[in-house]
Amino acid sequence: MCTGQIKGNCKKVYANCTAFEGTIPEYSDLAEQDCLTIEETTQDIYEILTDIKTDLELESLRGECITYPVGEIKILDALAALQAFICQQQETINSQQTAITTLQAQVADLQTNTCP
Description:
This protein is mainly alpha-helical. It has helices at about 40-55, 75-110. The protein is elongated, with a radius of gyration of 30 Å.
């Protein structure tokens, strides 16, 4: 399986037998523990990554009023779709504000009987 690779020529040392000598971040469940192994820290990293991946899952955004790209929704694509939607809404608001201002002027003209 590892034939021809450097890692295939090394003596195997299992992760649960290898001490971890690095720094553990505060957000890790292992932050307060001592004498950690590579096995424990690797498992912790995978659990953190799984939580992040789960939290970033965007497939549930499908079917709403914003059109997202086809396929897997990536965060940048979702943000770009949201930005496009917001900009479109702002254009609509600006257009409606112009129409309201025009209608208010027309109503004022009718009330003062100064129609063009």
